[in-house]
Design brief:
Number of helices: 16
Oligomer: single chain
Structural class: mainly alpha
CATH architecture of the largest domain: Up-down Bundle
CATH superfamily of the largest domain: MFS general substrate transporter like domains
Number of domains: 2
Length: about 400
């Protein structure tokens, strides 16, 4: 029996998401160490340049994603996946040859400009999957990026330790070439190019959305989830060091604690995605947000790493509930002709969360305490829930009316 086209796409786009997630994260553990080899910098200069080199990729992604989304709706999402994978292959490989930090920063900015594989992969699957399987399919697809992001730092650290920092860039470049080839050969998209004059303007799409406040609420929720997850990034090892009372294997424990939510999300996302197909993604999203708030509050009062580990494990369950639910809601309430633009806007908000989260975390940690970062994220999640509830309530009432 011939396999449905959407299932084959799901398998190969999962692989593409996995390789892209790994490629993005492989150089993260040693980026500041690599920057240190590119010149003689003071400690403040090194911190500033490393932070800038990290953030510039996400900032560029946030700015250009809507433009690529428009082209995706005009020429096809597969073409944008090919553009993203090939562009990243060149820019990441070139990072391995940089003579100074300024060239590295420029290349990482260009890398951000060429990004967009994951959101276009989501759009391809969302446009082709039967609506009653969308939650499980998008939940499964999300695990590809999660697994890649989890394994990337480990693989990058081993390569850097064995062959030097630059080797990770070369290997990542080869990986993105493989993604380009597999996407070109095995991913099929039924798409008819749209003439530029026939394209519905983005402003009109937002005006014609059935539930515009819901879509904007989902954008903001994506930003808050990413900011909450990234807020602890700059200070996680320092917090672990304090909780271990300046003894023990800080680096190893930090790695384990950091990866716990991702590991749980990997396991739970397909299951909770399937649940959203049965009971509705809006219910799963609402419960996920409340669960995240419940997890972050006690994190602000932990006294040892075991307590922190337990609450971060539970946080992974809430992430697994929220991320596929957001994608599924967009699939339900956005016209297919606008998937490229809407999913790209969502990626822009996610990228803004990647930039703002670590910045907020660093500021709060300096002003209050490391644990205060978790209370800050709990407040952010609460404000987000308050913003999203009216839109969810209007959706709930409309569905009740339709059923009656």
């Amino acid at each position: 029996m011939k396999q449905p086209n959407w299932q084959r796409n799901l398998y190969f786009l999962w692989f593409g998401n996995f390789m892209t997630g790994m490629g993005f994260s492989m150089t993260m553990p040693f980026l500041s160490l690599f920057v240190a080899t590119l010149g003689n910098f003071t400690r403040p200069q090194l911190n500033l340049l490393s932070g800038f080199a990290f953030a510039i990729t996400f900032l560029a992604k946030a700015i250009v994603s809507p433009y690529w989304g428009k082209l995706a709706d005009q020429y096809g999402r597969k073409l944008m996946c090919l553009r993203a994978s090939l562009g990243m292959a060149f820019t990441i490989t070139a990072c391995g040859f940089v003579p100074n930090v300024w060239v590295l920063i420029v290349l990482r900015a260009i890398q951000g400009c060429f990004s967009g594989y994951i959101n276009n992969a989501n759009a391809i699957v969302a446009a082709s999957v039967p609506i009653d399987h969308s939650g499980k399919a998008l939940g499964t697809l999300a695990t590809g990026n999660v697994v890649g992001t989890l394994l990337g730092p480990l693989a990058g650290g081993v390569l850097a330790q064995t062959f030097g920092y630059r080797s990770s860039f070369y290997v990542t470049g080869v990986m993105m070439v493989i993604v380009f080839v597999t996407t070109l050969v095995f991913v099929h998209e039924d798409f008819t190019p749209v003439d530029k004059q026939a394209m519905v303007p983005t402003k009109q799409i937002f005006r014609e959305l059935k539930y515009p406040m819901l879509i904007w609420g989902l954008f903001i929720t994506t930003l808050v989830i990413q900011a909450a997850n990234m807020s602890i990034t700059p200070i996680i090892s320092l917090l672990i060091k304090d909780l271990l009372h300046h003894g023990g294997q800080v680096a190893m424990v930090s790695g384990v604690i950091s990866s716990l939510p991702g590991i749980v999300t990997l396991v739970e996302s397909p299951l909770l995605g399937a649940l959203s197909d049965r009971i509705g993604p809006e219910k799963v999203l609402g419960v996920g947000l409340v669960a995240a708030i419940i997890c972050f509050i006690p994190m602000s009062m932990v006294h040892n790493v075991w307590q922190l580990g337990v609450w971060r494990t539970l946080l992974g369950v809430s992430d697994a509930a929220m991320l596929p639910a957001i994608q599924t809601l967009m699939t339900h309430y956005v016209p297919k002709s606008a998937f490229g633009r809407i999913f790209s806007y969502n990626q822009s908000f996610q990228a803004m969360g990647s930039v703002s989260g670590p910045m907020l975390g660093s500021v709060v940690a300096n002003a209050v305490s490391y644990q205060g970062v978790f209370m800050m994220t709990a407040i952010l999640e609460t404000l987000n829930l308050m913003f999203l509830v009216p839109a969810m309530w209007s959706l709930f009432k409309a569905k009740r009316i339709e059923q009656n």
